[in-house]
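pasting for ref. prot 1 ->
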Amino acid sequence: MLTFKGGVHPPELKEWSKDKPIERAPLPQKVFVFLSNHAGNPAKPVVSPGDEVKTGQVIGEPEGFISAYLHSPVTGRVLEIKKILHPILGKPIEAIVIERTSDDEWVHIETGDFERMSKEEILEIIKKAGIVGLGGAMFPTHVKLSPPPEKKVDTLIVNGAECEPVLTIDHRLMLERAEDILQGILIMMKVLGVQKAVVGVESNKMDAYHNLKKVFKGYPVDVALLRTKYPQGAEKQLIYAITGRMVPRGGLPMDVGVVVQNVGTCVAVKEAVVDGKPLVERGMTVSGDAVKNQKNLIVRIGTPVKDVIDYCGGIDENTERVILGGPMMGISITNLDIPVMKGTSGITAFLPKKSRPQKPCIRCSECVQVCPMNLQPYLLYLLSTKRKYDEAVENGLMDCIECGSCTYTCPSKIEHVRYIKLAKTVYRATRRGRR
């Protein structure tokens, strides 16, 4: 089976939800749509308090090249535009607050037969639909599908690894929406002008692997079986496992002729280009031992986390942690009023676990052996704590993908990634002169 060097094998914890078919969560009564629901510049609001909006209506327009459209997730009335804490950016960001007043009245995107459309026409629909990478990065998809002419892309890789513990929504999509995934892939292949696409699936999802093989038969789309290992779904590790190509330091997948998309993004592209549906909802997993009824759900963007958890029967009163995403790369939150974003692949809640205190580094090199980026996490940690940021950058600080393999394996329980993230933030700020 295909794989990469390094990585770890945390408990998969997928048994809670892997056999749960995808359900549609109830329409929320109120949504909070961040203007930063994508990488790049925040969108510009085009509605005002008091405006009536319909589901799928544009409420925010892109500001700049790397930005994306926003659409109303419900039919209702705009109550206000106010700043609330953005869990990823870590600071208050403006969000459009909409109160639902009725069931859906849809505003669709004008579309047609994609096989007769030009590449430019398809890209414009994907852009108008506000699609971003649903694996978590939220990078605008129309930008990713527009590599500059000097970058010759020959392969589309689709990420179906879902290596993050607990999460199972991609697994369920590959079982339940394989035809939609295929159509999304064919659309993106046409846009990129490539003749080859490969979907990578980990070996702990053999039912999904066989289902995709069956559905894709007769189409130029292969399915690659990957060794179950974390972080097998990280972009650079996935590319190496499937093609043997190594993305250069500081480079992008297109530097080695590859574009990577998530299976959920494929479904969103199909829904936009074929059905004219903008991105107003996404699939996600709600799981963990503190969740009463673990589920895989389709949830409207902007729905408060509390509403989603309530639909799953709530969480145990002794819950220790609630995480947006999975336990390895997710973000812990303390406020359940935070809304679901386009990049929210799951909500995970855990009961208390016995934890050991952090101890000094013993130079065991375990973190070096598991680092999928061939970095020295113990060194980056030390340089970060000593505020030697330039030296840390020289040793690959900015190449860290923050997968958490080093923290997971460390016998001294050192939270390398927490220090590395902080060092990155300080370095970026000081480099821009904001000391």
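and prot 2 ->
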Amino acid sequence: MTTRRFLNLADAGSEGIAAILADAAARKSARNGWPKGRIDQDRPLDGAVLAMIFEKNSTRTRASFDLAIRQLGGSSLILDSGSSQLGRGETIADTARVLSRYADAIMIRTDHHHKGEELADFADVPVINGLTDLSHPCQLLADMQTVIERQGPLVGTQWAWLGDGNNVCNSLIEAAGLTGFDLTVACPIGYEPDATFVEAAGSRVRVTSDPDDAVAGATVVITDTWTSMGQDGEEERQESLAPFQVDEARMAAAAPGATFLHCLPAHRGEEVTDAVLDGPASAAWDAAENRLHAQKSLLLWAMGKL
């Protein structure tokens, strides 16, 4: 049996994504009112170990995966560049070989996507992309779960992305193509998403440089910080992306009852205003919670339990 990997949404495919989202909803509902540390009734990953590699800092990814494996009955190992041999030059391949002896699955959050690919090539256990410079599929699982909770089935929803065509945007494009919602991406010229993802998504995805065109009638409006880690101080980015801010006027131009999403952390007053992020349309906090629930089901899928 081939070891599953989850470096992009396409690795799970439409059926895998549907199974993950359905299981996440069921598990979330079953835990209603429970203490956060209580283990799920069925303990589906009893005794399993998840190794987590952090070459980039994290709050939500680290906390949600750590709690996810615990709620499933397992435990975690956490490694970062400063306290492991990765930071001293040990190869990804050798790290994969070693961690495969200690853990039942590996999650990596890193800068370059090829590191995740190399890790998956040499690991004997499932490898999950917790974020790379190319994609952020775990965030999109949580976003899709959140929209289903608020609006029902994804088919028929109309999403608008405003801002940098970054890793989250690439996974959003991939999600549209795999699950069948419509998406308009509005980016400044020079900040467009990866053309490979756009081509693969087909007619579900449209790219424009007009943010007002993108948001008109949208049922979901989504954005991300303009300056990802390692890009701080780029004044040119701020100037180019400023016209793509999501403010109250933009949300008013979306469909009635539209949902606002942001993967967090937010730079308030830049890509989004306080009034939108803290307003009734915002589901950013629900999506942050759903990182936990969706990733629990992702772990089950990766380990062949779904």
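DSSP finds twelve helices and ten strands in the chain.
Residues 257 and 281 are 7 Å apart (CA to CA).
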